[in-house]
Amino acid sequence: MRLPSAKSLFLAAMGAAALLIPGLAPAAEPKVLRFAFQGELKSADPYQINESFSLSVNGAVYEGLVRRGPDMKLQPCLATSWEVLNPLHWRFHLRKGVKFHEGQDFTADDVLFSAHRVLGAGSDLKGRIPADAEIVKVDDYTVDFLLKTPDPWLINEWESWGIFSKSWSEAHGATEATAMNATTPPYAGLHANGTGPFILVSHEPGVKTVWKRNPNWWDKPKTNIDEVVFTPIPNAATRVAALLSGEIDWMDPVPLNDQARVNANPGTEVLAGPEIRTIFLGMDQSRDELGHSSVKGKNPFKDVRVRKAFYEAIDEEAINKKVMRGQATPTALMIAPSLFALSKDFHRLPFDPAESKKLLAEAGYPDGFEVQMDCPNDRYVNDEQICQAVVGMLARVGVKVDLNAEPKSKFFAAISAAGGFDSSFYLLGWTPTTLESFNVFQYIMGCRDPKTNWGGNNVGDYCNPKVDALARSALQEPDEEKRDEIFAQAWRISLFDDVGYIPLHQQALAWGVSKSTHVIQRPDNYYVFAWVNKD
Amino acid sequence: MIAFLLRRLLASVGVLIAVGLIAFAMFRYVGDPVNQMVGIETSAQERAQLRHQLGLDQPAMVQAARFLMNAARFDFGVSYQFKQPVADLIAARMPATLELALVASILALAAGVPMGVYAALRRDSALAKLFQALSLIGISLPTFLIGVLLIYLFAVVLRWLPSFGRGDVVRIGSWWTTGLLTVSGLKSLIMPSITLALFQMTLIMRLVRAEMLEVLRSDYIRFARARGLSEHAVHFRHALKNTLIPVITVVGLQLGSIVAFSIITETVFAWPGMGQLFLQSIQNADVPIMAAYLLMIATLFVVINLIVDLIYVAVDPRLRVHLNRA
């Protein structure tokens, strides 16, 4: 048997002594933020997937030219200022003296490189910059963006366009976000080098990710967190238990059923607030014969009276009260009130089953008809239950709805362009990532055009060229108030004259936090570690 | 003997090909993987391009053939969601699952055998009846519920044990990680391993009890008693030894299912093992991980069965004679 060496004995004794004598232990324990989410972080490379969880968490490492504050207002970040010389010419002045985590200096070359990377193969954030834009380095700290068409919202999504270091990416063969046919594992998927407030320490996909505070960050830190540990906990009951038992400080989401328990527990609370995502119902207005239904030879949803009858048959107040436990915010629009200044001028059509029945009879369906409703069951807050409520409400006006609730992987496969937009009646949610109305008109309200992706998520193909023309005219309008007027007109036509969609509500965010952890909740459900403080 | 081995091996390959084909057929119903790989604003062209890169636009037969060819070379490609090689992802998760399965098996044996023996020897005692009742609960309560109940009691109310994860792990060699060497790792192991072991334990207990009762009725036990051997020697030297032969077979076979059924336990406890990886990959339609996992589990079962068959032949002379004649 080998005896332990003198050195290891000495070290063991020292260790024991350190445990016994409190004075020898370091004075301040590092503050560790333990964070859990229902899904996993797919990659440390933010260009990999355009999904808010991945973008916000990776945003602790990679910063954009601009960022958003707790009030969602744009702030300077890696750009100290910018000016719109004319609608096609934007100039950005870059921050001097910023260093990447591994020591590289931040310059205009990194911006040019990151623009190239975000538009390149494998990137899912191609929409951040118009593909035909020309990006010019004026000097080391000035960059010009020359556009072909005006885009008043060019920088709206740039918070999540994180800037990569050119030399680091080239040194590690990470000049492209990974394409699926890559043969070597992507370096940037497991390693990161940004300019942000936190440095990636380790990323075990689907298991655990650790960051530590960047001591050399250019900005004054608003956090006292030294280390962040993220663990995915897919099971809701376990996630709640971990919060109640104090093993984690912050988690998302808290299921509606468990909110009372989290609030009743002395050390924890639910941080709720309206999310900017709108939940709505869509109807197929494109096919000449409605699929998945009892109607033959025609499509009732092409008749505005039927769409209006569906709208008026739905008691959104009851859905909010019973299904959403009062946590949702019923809405008349397809854009969150916080993102549209004129939203208070709009009110939902009244809940009126008698009128609804009358409209159905006028349209030639006095006895209603039968139609299938497609609904995800693991995507939005209580999505399947909302659909069940809708089924019950429509039954009262004589419409028999067969509910087809599926996991999101199957649901989105069927209703997407690849699935042939195969749905007659469906529930969907939408967050305008640019945080303004145009995005909704472009993807949800616009007449489908497969060439330009205009109306790319308009499953039912609601189409009114007048609405499209209005939305496009807003692009040319530099004045924000006048733009809002244009959008108000477009909303009036599309949602009230045409009833192209049935908006339901803004679902509520529900973060579970320990009372000793102070976080700031943004309505776009961004998790900003740099704003967290622990007692 | 060699002919027997070859026959069994051929049959095993047949089983694996069948599993591969069934798995491939199933993947067509989990949804569109491309949807899980990109954001909702990604255009139809880009999605089509991605689909083409993945070969998902080819005819089903071509895809099936390619899938089987790659699987035969243990090449499962790159995970759709993590963009990392599937082999690396599974290897990183394997130690967690194997440790959990091993501890659960030991636990099931260590508790199940004595309980079974006791229930057979003291058939009418109150404790034996309690064991019987408990085993009924263990067999009928779903793993999911047991896990959540344990978490609620020991993590939330009593705060003795962690509710999720594996605690701190120590790296051994290039890829093995173990939670057996740290306090937090051991504490984290307690609830998941009990949850996973419970079903096996009740199974073993009931099996041992039934076998033991059977053996106790046999002639040689009566003769042993007639020879005046002590009760202790009769029960433990003669009866128990003969009872354990079928028990060991079953336990061996169950080892495969412990690994396979750890999916639920791992998900409840956010245990970072292969089962959790598999379940998440179903939700994300991550076909490469699903394929690799299913074939790995199938291989595990096939290998265990093969070993059991070979041991039978080695142990039981009657089978050998039969084989030689054939």
Topology:
The complex is a heterodimer of chains A (535) and B (326).
Chain A: H1 6-20, E1 32-37, H2 52-58, E2 66-68, E3 74-76, E4 79-86, E5 89-94, H3 108-119, E6 134-139, E7 142-146, H4 166-171, E8 198-204, E9 208-213, E10 227-232, H5 236-244, E11 250-252, H6 259-264, E12 268-283, H7 304-313, H8 316-323, E13 329-330, H9 353-362, E14 370-376, H10 383-395, E15 400-406, H11 408-415, E16 425-430, H12 437-445, H13 465-475, H14 480-497, E17 501-514, E18 517-518, E19 533-534
Parallel strand pairs in A: 1-10, 1-11, 14-15
Antiparallel strand pairs in A: 2-3, 4-5, 5-7, 6-7, 8-9, 9-10, 11-17, 12-16, 12-17, 13-17, 18-19
Chain B: H1 2-27, H2 33-37, H3 44-54, H4 60-72, H5 86-121, H6 126-140, H7 143-157, E1 170-172, E2 176-178, H8 183-216, H9 219-226, H10 231-268, H11 274-283, H12 287-315, H13 317-325
Antiparallel strand pairs in B: 1-2
Write a structural description.
The complex is a heterodimer of chains A (535) and B (326). In chain A, strands 1, 8, 9, 10, 11, 12, 13, 16 and 17 form a 9-stranded mixed sheet that branches. Chain A has helices at 6-20, 52-58, 108-119, 166-171, 236-244, 259-264, 304-313, 316-323, 353-362, 383-395, 408-415, 437-445, 465-475, 480-497; strands at 32-37, 66-68, 74-76, 79-86, 89-94, 134-139, 142-146, 198-204, 208-213, 227-232, 250-252, 268-283, 329-330, 370-376, 400-406, 425-430, 501-514, 517-518, 533-534. Chain A has 14 helices and 19 strands. Chain A is globular. With 326 residues, chain B is mainly alpha-helical. A two-stranded antiparallel ribbon of chain B has the order 1-2.
